[in-house]
Give the backbone structure.
Amino acid sequence: MRLGREQASGYVEDIAADPIAAEEITVHAEGRAVPVPATEPVVPVG
Amino acid sequence: MVRLLSWSSGAARGERPDRPFTGYKLANAVLSADGERAGFAGLTLGATQVYGVTAEACCVWNSHHAPPRRWCGCGFYCLHALGDALALGCATENRGALLLEVAAAGRYIRYERGLRCSRQRVRLIKESRCGCGLPGSALADAGSGLIGWRHLVPVCGRCVVGRSALTMREFAARLDGQVRVEQAAAGSASAQAGTDAEESPLAVLSAEIALLHARLDDLQSRLDR
């Protein structure tokens, strides 16, 4: 199973609040401004 | 509510959400050699790295960079959707893994279906399944491990009989932080054990009755002769 194309990167503090659910993330499958690894990451790794 | 959007023209950099992401992942349960501490281990590249409830990622290939590095595969992985994690757990090599809900934080790279991140906090131990297919209610010695750590596998109330095992709650109590155990996984241990306790005498009685019938049939045939 692959994680797919890169969407974004950033930093988030680990605070105790309820984490962001998947439904709150909008994924765009098309287009990318930055190059992505030739092989997309495969889970599970870490 | 935070809504994260990425550019339709490409990946966005420098996102700063106000709270961590929810993620789902698989991990092996491990128990220390003295049985006092519990933890988790990755399934493939991170299989030799034991981590606790809150952990910082390290790169197993290159300790000089901070995970997750874009051109490396390092960092903690998790999936956005529970269904994807459940699907991953169906693979033969993953059948003995626990399904975890985590809070993914720190530096991260966000992909269509999941994340790679530098910090991870395990929040919940979700369902697991015994090798026989029934819901796992305890964790038994898997017969494999790492130096200092034994791998554990989920087992049901039937398959746990005669094996050294911990209930999910006993396992969670040995972790280095607080982790909730999904009610279905925690509650089914006693329920299953109770069922087994009730069924065992019935099974013995059924066997005795069958034996009695066989003896009666044998006696009848001798009398007939």
Remarks:
- Confidence is low (pLDDT under 50) at residues 29-39 of chain A.
- Residues 1-46 of chain A form one domain.
- The longest strand of chain A covers residues 6-12.
